[in-house]
C-alpha cells in the first residue's frame, strides 16, 4: 500500500478495519490559527530559536504559540497550538508508531493532503518510531513534497526525558527523500490539560538547518543551494499542521481504543 501515489481513498482502500475513520470533510481552521495568518510574519524576538527548544518544557505559554517568521540565526520558524479535548499525550505517542506502515493509515491524518507513507527500514512494526525514518509524500498547500522524517530521541533536541513528566515530545529531523540533504527540525510537544491535551508544534527550517547528509565539500556546494530553494512556504506549513492535528484529534481516542 505504501507505493500507491494518489490522494484520498480509492477502490478497496476503505475495506480495512480502520477505513471507517477516513473522513474527507475537515473542520475549519481554529480561530487562533486564522488570527496568526492575518497577523503575518512575527518579529524575530517574539519567536523561539532552535537552540532554546528546551523552553517548551517550561510552564505557561510563549509569546508566539501560533505564527511564523524569520529568525536572527537564519531560516524561519513556525509555531502551532492544537487543543485536543479527550486526547492524552500517550495516544499521540502510539499514533506516530502506528500510522507509518500503511499509506491508508497516513491518509486518515489529512485526507486532503497526505498521499503515501512507508518506513525506510521496510519493517511493518507499529510499536515504535524513534530511531526510524518515515518516507512520505504529501501536499503542502498546492506544492507536492517528498520528504524523509527521521524521528529522534527528545534529548537530541535538548528535551531530556526526565523533564517531560506526563508530556510527550515527538522530535525529528526533516529532509528530502530525493536528495541526501536535511532542511529542518520539528518538535510536537503534547502535554495534558484539564480536559485532555494540547499540542505545541515547532518547526525550524532553512538557513543553518540545511545540511547534506554524509556529504563532502563538493556535495555541500552543489546540493545545499538546490535544497534551500525547495523549502515550504511557512504559511502553508502552519495551515497544514493545524489542519492535520485538529482533524486527527477529533477521532484519535476512538482509533486508539480500537487498535492500540
Major β-sheet annotation: 9 strands, antiparallel
What is the number of helices?
6
How much beta, percentage-wise? Answer: 25-35%
User: What is the CATH top level name?
Assistant: Alpha Beta
Mean pLDDT value: 94
Do you know the CATH topology? Alpha-D-Glucose-1,6-Bisphosphate, Chain A, domain 4
Which regions contain 5 or more consecutive residues with pLDDT less than 50? none
Global structural class = alpha+beta
Query: What is the N-to-C order of secondary-structure elements (H for helix, E for strand)?
Result: HEEHHEEEEEEEHHH
**What sort of overall outline do the alpha carbons produce when their principal axes are compared?**
globular
The CATH superfamily appears as START domain
Number of strands: 9
Percentage of residues assigned to helices: 10-25%
Taking all Cα atoms into account, the compactness measure Rg is 18 Å
> Which second-level CATH architecture applies?
2-Layer Sandwich
- Alpha carbon gap, first and last residue: 21 Å
Number of domains: 1
Write the layout of secondary structure elements.
Blueprint: H1 31-39, E1 67-70, E2 76-85, H2 89-98, H3 103-109, E3 114-119, E4 133-140, E5 143-152, E6 168-176, E7 181-193, E8 196-205, E9 211-212, H4 217-228, H5 234-249, H6 252-259
Structure explained in plain terms:
With 260 residues, the chain is an alpha+beta fold. It has one domain (30-48, 63-259): START domain (Alpha-D-Glucose-1,6-Bisphosphate, Chain A, domain 4, 2-Layer Sandwich). Helices cover 24% and strands 28% of the residues. The chain is built from six helices and nine strands, in the order H-E-E-H-H-E-E-E-E-E-E-E-H-H-H. It has helices at residues 31-39, 89-98, 103-109, 217-228, 234-249, 252-259, and strands spanning 67-70, 76-85, 114-119, 133-140, 143-152, 168-176, 181-193, 196-205, 211-212. Strands 1, 2, 3, 4, 5, 6, 7, 8 and 9 form a nine-stranded antiparallel β-sheet that branches. Strand 7 and strand 8 form a beta hairpin. The chain is globular, with a radius of gyration of 18 Å. The two termini are 21 Å apart. The model has no long low-confidence stretch (mean pLDDT 94). Keywords: Hydrolase, Metal-binding, Zinc. Its cofactor is Zn(2+). Residues 50-256 form the DAPG hydrolase PhiG domain.
